[in-house]
Amino acid sequence: MDSAKEPVRDAVVAVIARDARWLWIRRGPAAAFAGHWAPPSGRVEPGETHAAAVAREVREELGLEVRARARVWSCPTHDGRFRLHWWSAQVVGGTLRPAPDEVSEVRWLDPPGMRALRPVFGDDLRYFERVALARLRTPRLELLRLCPDHQAAFAALHADPAVARWLGGRWTGGRSRRALRAALEHWRAHGFGCWMLRERASGRWIGRAGLRRSRLGGREETELYYALLPDAQGRGLAREAAGALVDVVLRDLGLASVAAVTLPRNHASRRVLRAAGLVPGGTVRHAGLPHVLYRLRAAPSARSPA
After folding, report:
1. Which of 1, 21, 228, 231 has a CA that sits 20 to 30 A from residue 50's CA?
2. pTM of this prediction?
């Protein structure tokens, strides 16, 4: 007679970012699947909450103190023995001192660096390639990671004359397709990029917002940008989207700052940026025209000490 099947147990994975690079470890000689690369993880002990398990595992493996922020995904392990609960986590203290039996190497990696790792579990890469930051929600909006299926909505937005007046003119179909391809490649290279904005009440596409690597005023910056259709403007929706992406910068990506530029006469955009916490920092030349530069810097306590 067959024995009863062993019950599936819970385990946690800690998603920890610093400067838009994520913490990966090579499992040490005493760990299961020694030599494999993975984000920090471990089983949930009886009576332990997921958040407590995240904090304990990272402390035991790496010497860091983290605060679990939110569960962002779940999936089974490749052998079906555990259910992995992925949690975003923020480093709040400690010193990076890997336990040698559990961790043989530590790296902070961007997506291309992750793809170069061997050996690695497929679902670990899948999280960063397809799941991470794919869907954000505000009270009135869904922000959906840009994908090829958004081409029609993306093109319609940039062909609208009221939108185009702030973007240097209406985009042709060819320009729109090239911009979408470039935005998709930005996601693949950096792990963040452009999101399409969908109004939750109506299900209608109303614009886009995003974060990109840019050179502004002679400095490399992470730039916040957005554009909304005319009938979605003046309702505070751009403010919601911008606020959500500022949270992504500070909490999910662990970046030191975010910047934005706008034309001096675009008073609506300037109000959005101020409401999102950005402050003016002078004038820069951008796209051949003078723009006002806005910036928000992370508080020192929000930065990883690792």
Report:
1. 21
2. 0.89
